[in-house]
Fold:
Amino acid sequence: MIMVYNLLWIFGSFLAIPWLICSAIVSRKRRKTVLQRLGIAVTPMLHNLKAASFDLQPLWVHALSVGEVLSAVSLARVLKQKYPGRPVVFSASTLTGYETASRILQKDVDAVFYFPFDLIFSVRSVINRIHPALVVIVETDIWPNFLFEMKRRFIPVILVNARLSDRSYSGYRRFSRWTSPVFRCFSFVCAQSGEDARRFIGLGLPADKVTIAGNLKYDSPPDLASENAISYLRLILSGMTHKQCLVAGSTHPGEEAILLKAFSRLKTEIPALHLIIAPRDIDRANEICNLAVSTGLTVELLTQMERSPSLYPPNDVVVVNTIGQLRALYSLSTVSFVGGSLINFGGHNPLEPAAFAKPILFGPYTGDVAESCNRLLALGGAQVVHDASELFHAALTLLKNPERAQAMGENAFKILQENQGALEKTLIFIGRFVDGFGNIRRLST
Structure:
């Protein structure tokens, strides 16, 4: 199976080389990540890790992108506290994930770096540099070469906060002859829910290697949106935050048009209302500004407001073109909308606004965050909207009924509090592997 996979990788790589070179030239994301993900260049922190003298082999935590990184922050911090004699290193696959991890975890872990492409030479290059004792993968980032190489070296890999959507599970089941050996490379899986656990077992994992630990997102640390960050944004957006404000986070192409259509109608009912849009991809900020202007709205980038926060009356719309501020922005909202859900992108984390007791709206496509969305809906902490008309009516009801909005926000916050505990359970199962290492020494290179 792995030989066929690598032959396909090689063939695909040759076809992709011209695209990769052009992309690396014109795209900031590719330019900053490609050499490091190939295992050719090394991030400074990882270079320093190799030069440092650590006796024990590192614990490696990996998260795909921003959402998974935020889920993994508490886990990485607690692992470092629990095992102070061991290096803890942290990887991400995307530029925004890496930048978020570097900003939040720079004082908590020994290195932050890019996860390698799943090419055998890239994988081996990074593994040889780190020599991990254990790898913990958060949520979903499953790569055959990486997993088979870890199994070959007898390095345990644990998948935590693990989830499988209906679509992913069906796809893996359809090709189970090829996918089951990959999943069996995991030493243990901590699933978010009973349904997730059943799906992993259905893909070939022994039942004694799967447990239900819950969702780490309920245990996200409060300092991810510090009082300083909130106060700073409140100052910049001072013309807005004493009025009503709709914050739309993690939006994707196609959703902004729906949001702006609904917002234009809301402005006729509540003229002082403002909209803050934080797109998932900040490189789309100018595109969204142009879309807002074409709708007849006034608009400004957040960075422009930072340079002159009080020199003019606030615009109708602010588009966020920096990373790492969404949670603090949710704290300033009257009503929040969580994107990736009006168009089928799987949805994003609704617990971020819930942490501030904000009423939450999202679309019908929430397969990637189904567990938390279903809890919020069942207990009145959120509402589904399907289009611009439903978004208009739902937001208007909440904006004109503060008591109702407050009750929905309090329900959301209560759900967040009542479902904490996944971090403690996950640490127990990780501990079984770490404590079994004894004092395994770091290998010399």
Observations:
- The domain at 26-214+421-437 is CATH 3.40.50.11720 (Rossmann fold).
- DSSP finds 21 helices and 14 strands in the chain.
- The radius of gyration is 23 Å.
- The longest helix spans residues 2-26.
